[in-house]
Amino acid sequence: QVQLVESGGGLVQPGGSLRLSCAASRSIFSIYAMGWYRQAPGKQRELVATYTSGEKTNYADSVKGRFTISKDVAKNTVYLQMNSLKPEDTAVYYCYAQIIKLATYNDYWGQGTQVTVSS
């Protein structure tokens, strides 16, 4: 099991930047996949950026070249650096972790942090 705590959301103007943080309650070495999803009003939750199997990263096409996922294993924390933000990036951003136990994939979510891009 793991608890995930996000921080760093807020209101930013178009073209601005934000960095989200997700602190895990256990070593991220033990987590198979970890990253970020988002959900805008009236839309389904969608993948933003994730790590899988350690170092493999995956980004949504809509954020490639603008967002960067990174991690600090000493702090058990994953970050999402968001640059050149657009109004369509407005959403609740959720930290996600997947742990494999006894051949079963277990998904965990943070409480979410609001990101609003508006002038």
Topology:
Blueprint: E1 4-7, E2 10-12, E3 18-24, E4 33-39, E5 46-52, E6 56-59, E7 67-72, E8 77-82, E9 91-101, E10 104-109, E11 113-117
Parallel strand pairs: 2-11
Antiparallel strand pairs: 1-3, 3-8, 4-5, 4-9, 5-6, 7-8, 9-10, 9-11
The SS-based structural class is mainly beta
**What's the alpha carbon Rg, rounded to whole Å?**
14 Å
The strand count comes to 11
Principal-axes shape call: globular
Terminal Cα separation, in Å?
40 Å
Low-confidence stretches: none
Describe the model.
The chain has strands at residues 4-7, 10-12, 18-24, 33-39, 46-52, 56-59, 67-72, 77-82, 91-101, 104-109, 113-117. With 119 residues, it is mainly β. Strand 5 (46-52) and strand 6 (56-59) form a beta hairpin. The mean pLDDT is 94.
Labels describing this entry:
119 residues, single chain, 0% helix, mainly beta, four-stranded antiparallel β-sheet, 11 strands
Short account of what is shown:
The protein has strands at 4-7, 10-12, 18-24, 33-39, 46-52, 56-59, 67-72, 77-82, 91-101, 104-109, 113-117. The protein is an all-beta fold.
